[in-house]
Amino acid sequence: MHRTFAFVATLLACALVTGPVRAQADRARTIAELHKQNPPIVFFIAHGEPNSCGAGCDSWIAAEGRIDEDAPLHLRRVLEQAGKRKLPIYFNSPGGGMREAMEIGRMLRSRGLTAGVARTLPQGCWPAKAVDVCSKAMQEKPSETAVLAATGASCLSACPFALIGATTRLIEPTTLVGVHEGLTYFTRTNGIAGRRLELALEKLESKWDREYSRYIAEMGIDKGLFTVVKETPWAKMHYLTRAELIAFGIDRREVLLASGWNIDVIDPASIGYAAYTSVTVRLKTQVDAVPTDQPKPMTLALSCTGRPRGDYLLTSLQPVANTSVRSGPDFVLKADRSSILLTRASSFLTTNKNEVLEVRRAHVWRALLDALLTASAVTISGDVPWAVALAHPESSGAIAVGPYAQATISTLGAADALKALVARCEPSTGAQSAGVQPASPKN
Q: What is the DSSP string of 208-251?
């Protein structure tokens, strides 16, 4: 007997109306076909440039493919190879066996490891070549210098249950974490048929429900995850939103990618290929006459899609509950004597996970970007009046007359990210894109 999770959300579940014997046969046949389409998972230690997997991190464990029966054994061998090093592990998996996923999760927890979702690719391969081609090349030569690519990476079906075993989980905005109900079936029926087989399947399903409910609690994850799993049919996929990832305790980081700038294709689609970073601004409120600071995450993205040469679009993206939320303040970015005013747009954007984002935008010329992103420090302030910002650019970054306090934006990786963006947006400038790293999830 076994319980597995689907890897291809578009496949239809078998129809139970055909009877338990036919249903059992259809389930086993469906799983066998899915196994053919999705190769077993491979684990290997990848090596990148300094800080390529976070501050002080240049090596990690890549986990690519379907979680099969041998997956725990293969991971254990790689962990032995790593020795005393607590290397983070990055999954890109369509799912697999539930029992094996939970065993992997417990291995990660016992070692206190960090886990994330990203593809491991050879440096300089993607986006020049297709991501699948790059992934295959990496697996054939794991000794090559590697990078982490969040875009297009996913952890689906059983994979999230391995992921939540880690003590720290890193889920970036450009990745997908999806769950749904498992598919229970017998590897052998030993001649059992009819109503007896139907009752045996129901008993097995109840057993597995109890198993992974206990496991979710054991990993310190909110039981809401179990509810979402049970409410999502096997033939469909529920992609966890940022709000759910936070509410369930899977990834509660206030600031995503807070350690620097990255380059990648990001969501929403209208932004596309961009250099981006994240920052937390604090909303000053007053509760029972006591001043408090409420953290508000914000992503800053530089893009050039459809723009004239040398003209870039700087966009700030802040999650809001819905489009009826009152528009927040304008923002000013300041570095030395350079400043950029991000004005409120009367519009919102929606991600592929149906998250609503409030938008602020500014048109920025290349020379100003160079000055801004190569500065030793960049700050952002809220609710700065137009007149003040334009008349006093040297000081506007320090003025916060509205509800938002000033925050500092890291410039780590900014120069390289800008170089990569210019290489894509202005190829004739001679800027080199070789070695550019896609978004690297960081702690």
A: HHHHHHHHHHHTT--THHHHHHHHS-TTS-EEPPHHHHHHTTS-
